[in-house]
Amino acid sequence: MAIRIALDAMGGDRAPLPEIVGAVEAYRRFGVQTILVGDQGRLRQELLRLKVSESDIGLSIVHADEVVTMDDPPMTPIRKKRKSSLRIAGELVKSGEAQGLVSAGNTGAVMATAKLVIGGIEVVERPALATWLPHPKGASLVLDVGANSDCKASHLQQFAIMGSIYASQVTGIEHPRVALLSIGEEDIKGNDLTKEVFKLLQQSDLNFTGNVEGHGLFAGEADVIVTDGFTGNVVLKTGESVYEYISQALRQGFGRTLRTKAGYLLSKPVFKELKAKMDYAEYGGALLLGVKAVTIICHGRSQPKAIMNALRLARDFCVAGLNQRIVDQIQARMREPNNGKHSVAN
Question: What domain count does the chain have?
Fold first, then answer.
């Protein structure tokens, strides 16, 4: 069976052009088949302007009358806009016509659609939103970054299992290092939640390396970093704002004099490499782990490159059968805690 990904073509800030171009490139470069969900007239008009034929590039269009905006409450596609592009994309996944969902729309609404329309994996207590944070040697997977503000220890334990499985698939690391975000490296540091989670992970057969502090987030001290959604979201937004501040400060600084402009030209390759590492478009978007079908939430400002990469990641997730591996590993670990110190079996 061919794998097709449902794309909410109306969700992003600049929709639908970035979504369409991203879907076209995803097919041309990676062979990803996409169902564009949105205003049929607008979508076909843009395809015509781009001189692209649906049949030539593995695209199909499903019409949607409504759009969930960034200002809408998270439950809007569930309670009100049931004919929205987001809701219909979710229904396509639920029915099996598509095997994954990608959207650059309202984050809360996408999560609500994934949980309540597509549905959660039965053995997973809470889905977790996972994203990559770059460091000098690569990137670390951080979860949860916003799906659950309040968590129990068992939730974070499952986040660690899901994160380890996914990180292993993406990075090729057989035994990903798993760390717990806390205010100190010692196991006695942190609040009641982190202390309890520390004990659970220490007793597990994950490659748990202990606590990691804030300064270790961008230092490559772990391949998977686990935290609650409240803390993770603050980390994510802080990291984005720091990057934007540094970028703006550098642009202003290098543009002041001829000497600084010359310095920029000499340093340009270094800054280009840094930009590539920090660019969210390289990672496509944040992955909602723990739902029945792969769901990727892109940044609202996503350009075609981010959409393309999100569609590729969604397809690769399906091909690798990661959801079934998550089910199998969580069932095994929650049923029979393992006190051995070896990593997740892949």
Answer: 2
Helices 304-319 and 153-171, packing angle to 10 deg: 100
Residue located via tokens 């998550």: 326
From CA 10, how far away is CA 42, in angstroms rounded? 10
- Quick check: is 331 in a domain? no
% residues pLDDT > 90 (the chain): 65
Q: Is residue 19 part of a domain?
A: yes
Q: What pLDDT, on the 0 to 100 scale, is given for residue 344?
A: 45
**CA torsion angle 183 227 235 230 (round to 10):** -110
The verdict on 100 and 4 lying in the same domain is yes
- Asked whether residue 197 falls in the same domain as residue 69, the answer is no
Same domain, 110 and 176: no
Domain of 55: which CATH number? 3.40.718.10
Are residues 77 and 146 located together in one domain of the fold?
no
Give 278-337 pLDDT, tens digit per residue. Answer: 555 566 789 999 999 999 999 998 999 999 999 999 999 999 999 999 998 888 876 654
C-alpha distances in Å from residue 33, one per residue of 25, 99, 267, 309, 314 = 11, 11, 40, 13, 11
Instruction: Report the pLDDT value the prediction gives residue 341, as an integer from 0 to 100.
Output: 47
Residues 54 and 135 reside in one and the same domain: no
Q: What is the largest CA-CA distance in the chain?
A: 66
- Could you list the residue range(s) of the whole structural domain that residue 58 is in? 1-124+290-320
